Amino acid sequence: MNNNRSKNKVLVFIILLLLITNFAVLGYFLFFRTGKAPEKNKFRDFTAVLQKEVGFNDQQVAQFNELKKGHWQQALDKMQEIIQIKNTIFELSKQDNTPDSIIERLADSIGTLQREVEINVYKHVVATRKICTADQVPAYDSLIKRIINRGRMGRPSEAPHRESEK
User: Can you give the pLDDT of all 166 residues of the chain as single tens digits?
Assistant: First the structure.
């Protein structure tokens, strides 16, 4: 009985210590941190990767930046349309008796837009590959392969591969 009481005191002490620690960390992040972490410019970061890993020179980076402007704007426009359709689907989910045919039509339009985004990405990769010298092509291909395998949804690059991919 006395042994259980001392164990309970130790457990209560540990729980209180953890609570105090959690509040201290929370307080630090809420009150003592100043400003936000600087947001990285993803485009600049990618051009740096192209320079470092592929060996792009300044002229190639300038060509890439010109390609990127057009391709990126097209992709953003399509992704914005996808978001609008998803919002419509969400709003319809709040209504009773929404016909399946409407949801299916909206989902099909998302598929069509996503198809256009992927075709745009393909064209951008091909156009960027044409900027590469013959010596740079293997490094560029390797970089693109890593990006594809990493995925957009935060899937780790160490995710198991299907047998057909090996």
Answer: 667 777 677 777 777 667 677 666 666 666 665 555 444 455 457 889 999 999 999 999 999 999 888 888 888 888 899 999 999 999 999 998 889 899 999 999 999 998 998 898 899 999 999 999 999 999 999 999 988 887 544 444 444 444 444 4
Rg (CA), the chain: 26
Q: For the domain made up of 42-165, give the CATH fold.
A: Four Helix Bundle (Hemerythrin (Met), subunit A) (1.20.120)
Residues 7, 44: Cα–Cα separation, whole Å? 57
Domain boundaries, the chain: 1-35, 42-165
| pTM of the predicted model as reported, rounded to 2 decimal places | 0.60
- Helix H, strand E, coil C: the string for the chain is CHHHHHHHHHHHHHHHHHHHHHHHHHHHHHHHCCCCCCCCCHHHHHHHHHHHHHCCCHHHHHHHHHHHHHHHHHHHHHHHHHHHHHHHHHHHHCCCCCCHHHHHHHHHHHHHHHHHHHHHHHHHHHHHHHHCCCCCHHHHHHHHHHHHHHCCCCCCCCCCCCHHHC
